[in-house]
Amino acid sequence: MTSTSNPKTPIQDAPVHRVLLGKKQILVTENEPLLVQLERAGIPVEYQCREGYCSSCSIKLLRGQVIYPFEPLAWVQSGYLLACCAIVKSDIEIAFFD
Ligand code: FES
């Protein structure tokens, strides 16, 4: 007897969202913070702590929604996100500069 089940990894099951950065567009999941997914796509992001303490990974959020699985200790300026701990929850548009 053969099994017809096809086990899925959590990444396959995660919702996928578009991230627009200038003329670039990448797809991200809700499984990992935005920072690691930008890096994987070859988009360098400034960072120091990678844990929500320093705010050096702050990126302007032009539209869309992110959440934080834990409350970052760094101050998150209105209209910005902390890439190291932000989970993307919708299609978003971001910018590195004002
Ligand atoms: S790298 Fe320090 S808050 Fe993101």
Observed structural traits:
mainly beta, Ubiquitin-like (UB roll), 2 helices, globular, binds FE2/S2 (inorganic) cluster, 2Fe-2S_ferredoxin-like_sf, 2Fe-2S iron-sulfur cluster binding domain-containing protein, Beta-grasp_dom_sf
Percent range for β-strand residues = 25-35%
| Total count of helical runs of at least 4 residues | 2
What's the β-strand tally?
A: 7
What is the CATH C-level name? Alpha Beta
Order of helices and strands: HEEHEEEEE
Overall shape: globular
The main pleated sheet reads as:
5 strands, mixed
Helix content: 10-25%
Kindly report the oligomeric state of this protein. single chain
Q: What's the CATH H-level superfamily name?
A: Beta-grasp domain
Bound molecules: FE2/S2 (inorganic) cluster
As for the CATH topology, it is: Ubiquitin-like (UB roll)
Radius of gyration: 15 Å
Protein name: 2Fe-2S iron-sulfur cluster binding domain-containing protein
InterPro entries: 2Fe-2S_ferredoxin-like_sf, 2Fe-2S_ferredoxin-type, 2Fe2S_fd_BS, Beta-grasp_dom_sf
Domain 2Fe-2S ferredoxin-type: 17-98
